[in-house]
Design a protein that fits this description.
about 300 residues, alpha/beta, 9 strands, about 40% helix
Length: about 300
């Protein structure tokens, strides 16, 4: 595992090992005893071509807690915005001798291209509609901490599946770990041949959520979609927004998740999002730091031994 570009192709032992290491970092973060010499002398560059709050901040915090020198490159004021190509950017980064490169890009495959051109370990922080591997890992860690295992759980992933890299990474990870995945959403927001991804497809929330152990809502990505895919935000919430009535179709102790940022009143009702026992949305943010610490730890060791 020289890079972390996708969940697809990873096997259960690899995933379980990362989750176990992340679990140890959860405990260390809560006690304030993180090993701040683990990445001492290493340089981590966050290269985000798309806006991000949670992902970039958690990677920055993860790197600093492990002792790395962290640099956040602002693309809007960089040479990329002046017309520099991605390959020229790669050559520049290579000359800087960075050790770890976190990339978010609007084009699917951009992190994989950079991984071929730089010496640093590359981590995909979301590329187009392809994958977002660390989000799936933190989702899995959150579920595992509450349920003990992912095996045989029914996880309903609901909403804008068509444009969601989070959904794709979760489908691959949950399938590899033995969970049953359901995709729930309108036909216009469901990828073609979605069943080939190894999931069951539903277009009705009541049927899709029936007996579910986990309900994972997705952000409605209006910036990526053509007009006409949804009639209006109000109509979307009526049929596919998660409220108490729809959640009642799932198991009484079903977990509620959302990768953020949330559009309250569009994908999820505030009363559900803030539910004190059912919602684990804030916990997902905490798990994100621990998972990214584990990923940086593992990839830095591989780089040191390369």
């Amino acid at each position: 595992m020289r890079h972390l570009l996708a969940i697809e192709g990873m096997h259960r032992p690899q995933i379980a090992s990362l989750l176990d290491l992340a679990e140890s970092y959860v405990l260390l973060n809560r006690t304030g005893k993180t090993p701040r010499d683990r990445l001492r002398g290493r340089t981590l560059i966050n290269l985000f071509f798309e806006d991000s709050t949670r992902t970039r901040t958690s990677f920055e915090l993860a790197g600093k807690r492990l002792g790395a020198d962290v640099i956040n490159m602002t693309v809007s004021t960089s040479s990329v915005n002046k017309g520099e190509t991605l390959l020229d950017t790669a050559a520049t980064l290579n000359a800087m001798n960075c050790d770890l490169l976190v990339v978010r890009h609007a084009s699917s495959g951009a992190p994989a291209l950079l991984a071929q051109k730089v010496d640093a370990a590359v981590i995909n922080a979301g590329d187009g509609t392809h994958e977002h591997p660390t989000q799936a890992l933190l989702d899995a860690l959150t579920i595992r901490r509450h349920r003990g295992s992912l095996e045989n759980l029914i996880v309903a992933i609901c909403g804008d599946v068509l444009h969601s890299r989070v959904a794709r990474s979760n489908i691959h990870l949950l399938g590899a770990m033995g969970a049953r995945v359901r995709l729930v959403g309108p036909p216009t927001l469901m990828p073609a041949a979605a069943e080939r991804l190894g999931a069951e497809v539903f277009h009705d929330m009541a049927s899709g959520l029936a007996g579910a152990d986990v309900v994972m809502m997705l952000r409605l990505q209006l910036e990526r979609m053509a007009r006409g895919l949804v009639p209006s935000a109000r109509e979307y919430f009526r049929f596919y927004g998660l409220d108490a009535q729809k959640l009642a179709c799932a198991r009484p102790d079903a977990l509620v998740m959302h990768p953020g940022p949330m559009n309250r009143g569009v994908e999820i009702d505030s009363a559900v999002a803030d539910h004190p026992t059912r919602s684990v949305i804030r916990e997902q943010v905490e798990m994100g730091v621990a998972v990214r610490m584990a990923v940086l730890d593992v990839l830095s060791r591989v780089g040191a031994n390369a």
